[in-house]
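Board notes, transcribed. Complex of a protein with zinc ion.
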Amino acid sequence: MPARTAEVLVLGSGTSTGVPLIGCTCPVCTSSDPRDVRARCGLHVSCEGFALQIDVSPDFRAQALRFGVSRVDAALVTHCHADHALGLDDLRRFNTLQGAPIPLYARRTAMRGLRRIFGYVFEPSDAARRSRLYLPRLVPHAIGDAPVPIGPFLVRTLRIPHGPSFSCAVEVALDGRRLVVASDCSRVTPPLAAMLRGADLAFLDGLRDRPHSAHLTVDAAAAALLASGCRRGRLIHIGHDILHADLLRRLPAPLAPSFDGERLPL
Ligand SMILES: [Zn+2]
Ligand SMILES: [Zn+2]
Ligand SMILES: [Zn+2]
């Protein structure tokens, strides 16, 4: 059987504020390069009609409209920060389109956070239950370290440090190839380095040059990606400190900054 191919669509390449920042007049926030407009993080991974959504940002609805996202067969939330989770309600449109509930994957701590924030979804009132039309229908799957099959993919998550708390890295394997995503990461631990090693496509947190307690710098992310021997590496969760064009010039092949709307084969 020939190997299947997947497409990875970058829905958002930006940090938690999005770029431009509200009220900022810096050169990046006022840039005319569309690649300097960075929505909050999300990746849409599709293969043969099956679509896995990694993170549902507050920009998710606009991203889906802008890039023609028409299916979400499963969603995975990496951690329960607002910039990765607050678009969850907009999954209900895909319930309607597909006429089915959507499985939602998250590690246990993140799932607890989602249940708390989205109490009206997971523990609806009687009145809300009667008018289910307005609620997303999600089937929660709290996951641990073990790989889980999701559609055509085998997906594994790994807890990674993210400042004072944790996020997770996501590995999506398909027919021997691997996508690795660690959008929110403050330190590349040995298990994360092992996950990145030899990936076909890897996304790593590259917020900015100045150190940040919860994110990697551009140089730290680039060094980790180069050391991993990944076939293609992309920085993601980028702030408003660096123009896309400057970052692109600065990074050695096979690295580049990601940008909203970038489509990459896996
Ligand atoms: Zn984030
Ligand atoms: Zn700015
Ligand atoms: Zn975060």
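The two ends are 17 Å apart (CA to CA). Residues 7-16+38-259 form a domain with the Metallo-beta-lactamase; Chain A fold (CATH 3.60.15.10).
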